[in-house]
Amino acid sequence: MNDTYRFPSLEVRQSISRLPTDWENDLADAIEAAFAKGNWELDDLVAALNRSRVRPPGGGAWTAENYQSTIHELGA
């Protein structure tokens, strides 16, 4: 019997049903880099993503609309 109590709120990725894809990890890294450079407003964040190597699903350029849609889908 294991007598070590593990706090469930401290489990890594406890709320996800699968590991992120490589693209999702790349997107997260690009968003973090954009925030680190002070890009807090949506238009600034979208511009920073367009300067990154990460493209939205389907390719092309990031827009406020496809960014919000993508983030919403990823959070569903």
Short summary:
This protein is mostly helical. The chain has helices spanning 22-36, 42-51, 64-75.
- What oligomeric assembly is this protein in? single chain
> For the report, how would you describe the main beta sheet?
none
The total beta strand count reads 0
Number of domains: 1
* Distance from first to last alpha carbon: 37 Å
Kindly state the percentage of residues in helix: 40-55%
Mean pLDDT: 89
Explain this structure to me?
This protein is mostly helical. The chain has one domain (20-75). 49% of the residues lie in helices and 0% in strands. The protein has three helices and no strands. Helix 1 (22-36) packs across helix 2. It is elongated and about 50 Å long.
Architecture blueprint of SSEs:
Elements: H1 22-36, H2 42-51, H3 64-75
Descriptive terms for the model:
3 helices; mainly alpha
